[in-house]
Amino acid sequence: MEPPSERAPRLGSVAALDRVLADCRACPRLVEWREEVARVKRAAFADEEYWGRPVAGFGPADARMLVVGLAPAAHGGNRTGRMFTGDRSGDVLVRALYDIGLASQPTSERRDDGLRLLGVRFTAPVHCAPPANKPTPGERDTCAAWLVRELQLMKGTLGSVVVLGAFGWQALMTAIPAAGWSVPRPRPVFGHGVRVDLAPADPATPRPLAVFGSYHVSQQNTFTGRLTPAMLREVLADAATAAGLHPRTP
Question: Any idea where the Uracil-DNA glycosylase-like domain is (predicted)?
Fold first, then answer.
């Protein structure tokens, strides 16, 4: 099978990207882990059929705002087949988007639950669930072609990106130049609430891109109060405004 770096650039739509990405087997460690999790299962989900494949982005292809996470959770996205679905991280993120009017409902439980994101799309720098929620730098680099192509295909409408965590921030800042925006030097450092405005790097990129940092919506952050719902809503609302969306005040 062709590596992502050769397949992704030829894909002409976000729908095609999502479809082809779901068959990727480029990283042996991740393939083995995601499929083992899908076989063994968690006791609470023993009667469910796990997805056990790469998890594509979720949301409209013409979204104005992109939310970049880390990777699918073993018993969340890897189980349900949808980004930020079926786990606590998804609960927190989707609730915050619902509170500001950018999701059709406050929960994200399964692929057929009717959730719609309004002007927003989810993606990640690594599309397979990694052991201990820790992809390697090599796995991030192998998966980078999918992120680059997704950004390229969305740049006609994309106005802002919210990056959840330092791993995603590093991946995005590496991918951005190939997607058509300029990254300043020294490279911007991740932090919660940080905003960086990136200028187009070529005539094919129609608008600047505002990039916002947020702590990840992991239980480690949300259970300890490092990231509160109000903190998350504030970053999401700022990014939505920068993208030309109209978030409401919860």
Answer: 56-236
